[in-house]
Amino acid sequence: MNTIDFTFSDLIAGYVTHFDQTQDTFGLKTSDDREFLVHLTSTAFGELVRNLGEAYRDATAQMREMLVPGRFVFAYGIFYPDGENGDYKFDAKHIVFLGRSENEYLFEQQNWWIKQVRELANFYLKAEFGDGEIDYFEYRTNLTITGDKQKSGRQETDTISRLVYGFASAYLLTGEDRFLEAAEKGTKYLREHMRFRDESEGICYWYHAVDIKDDGTEQKIFASEFGDDYDAIPCYEQIYALAGPTQTYRITGDRRTIDDIKATVNLFHRFFKDKSEKGGYYSHIDPITLSAYSESLGRNRAKKNWNSVGDHAPAYLINLWLATGEQEYADFLEYTFDTIANHFPDYDASPFVQEKFNDDWSKDYQTVQQNRSIIGHNLKIAWNLTRMHSLKAKETYKTFAEKIGHVIPAVGCDRQRGGWYDMMERVLAPGEKFHRLVWHDRKAWWQQEQGILAYYIMAGVYQDPNFIRFAREGAAFYNAWFLDTESGGVYFNVLANGEPYALGTERGKGSHSMAGYHSFELCYLAAVYTNLLINKEPMDFYFKPTPGGFPDNILRVQPDILPPGSIRIDEVWINGHKYTDFDAEALTIKLPTDQAEMKVRVRIVPASVDFDADLIEVTDGVAKIDLTGSLEPSMLKYFKEELEKAHGVKGVVLNMQDLNSISDEALRYLAFYKQKAGSNFNITALGVKGAVKEAIEQSELNEEIVVAH
């Protein structure tokens, strides 16, 4: 009975163990050490993983040479039940490589996620506003898979806020003004159309949505009209209403925005918080009485869950602390994570956290979720506990995060194909070996984000080699299968085997559940973690502070909560000019008071990095590059990157005033670079002194490099 004696297609993700040229086969070992023999057919083809906005990159001709031991690949093919001893023969039809060499992961390149966030931002700008003016009256929540607007006139507060978060994050990474324009206009639209200020109570709360009627008038939708939250004010909707404005505030310091944020935090403390000794935050309140105990709430009466307790941190509270440095928000974060550490572990009963509770923290099984766990919430807890551990180190945070990191892959990860599952039964029924998937075995984009960020930051903070492996496997699955390289954006869901799932409400690129949040947040923080924590690469961030907006004119530029002392400011430019009034270790900039408008670019580097190269300008075909620190062999790649940006120029001016030393390898590279550029190509060095001057003289490159005084 139930004999599998038919063919079926599927995906194998794993590490190459060997390649047999005579048989045209290779071994592929999965993440959990099961090995498959893979046959290459005459129609098999290979490709390199590609980013959004990139063309297909064929690797078929080199495919066999690339199948070297240790390399992580995806093999999609067909299982045939006619192997020896009842084994299945697997014929590969499609191979996806993650890099050009066996140890390269293209998604860990310095600019991979920055390129991706730019493509995402342009996709949503086009989808919502076309090529014209950015006008949020034209915004619609529901978008098709190609980015076209659906007929509904609904504008949901949370989806606007999440998209605003995306545009703000894209600006932080790219400095493109149109992205900030979209973030600021979206923040203003939320304030003018979705906000309810209750001055008598000193609070602010946000409408669920606005319906734009055919005649152009608006109808406010106060209480939620979504699923389990119907006719209530759910805490998570108020939380996510702050996501976009808070990220925008980090850039601009707009006082109107911080006033709204503070008033909404008052709402949480006054009406959602359980002020008794039990503690925590309620998941819903009544829209009229603002009480969590109203009978009208039904099964949502006096309940607590992950969203109401923990989602404050990633959605807005960490970013609010980064922007302000205020102790009030650090204390709020500590209270939040202490609550999570005290109540969410449940490892005597299940490998998954408990995330739904009654008023007294007893387990709540009355919701649709019942005794089930959402994989992404487990991963989200590990990710945010690790962030918090760098703000206030507590062994409870670290232990709980590492526990999730070690336990969850065996039960919530697809170790055959890659990627993280959705909702699963928390306990096994008698006779079961695998925790059951509740709805399906599809994989949602936002749960992949949680896994990638959790394991990258844990790898950087806790230095566990298993964590970097899980981070790369998760990022590989996401970049190989979730990016819609044809239409743009990312898919809501893919099937277990990575193929897009495009039916029903999960077909579109915009809905109640999907907007420009998780995919943008992934780009922003994956860039931060891989560059600053893992690969020790410098990063540039952009701000446009309102004059006099930030208290004491202090701009805080820490990109995320990272281990103390792990990063520092290297250089700052304001309106294109170098600026030196900053505290490198505190990651703060004292803004000037005589500028009517400021665009700030700040270069942040790992504390261990002592070199920087920056292409300042190209004028009349001559590139000017500033060099600072010590140009050792390990730093040469950063210098090369800046020279490559100036491709096609007729000369280079190197400002070496702040360069302390230069290696022989760097000098040989300059000689080779000039040779390739031609005899008419000029390299001029300015401000040469000390050890740098001596090194150039000893290299006898005086005729290749013109030393100007």
UniProtKB/TrEMBL annotation:
Residues 612-709 form the STAS domain. It comes from the Bacteria. This is N-acyl-D-glucosamine 2-epimerase. It comes from Gloeocapsopsis crepidinum LEGE 06123. The lineage of its organism: Bacteria, Bacillati, Cyanobacteriota, Cyanophyceae, Oscillatoriophycideae.
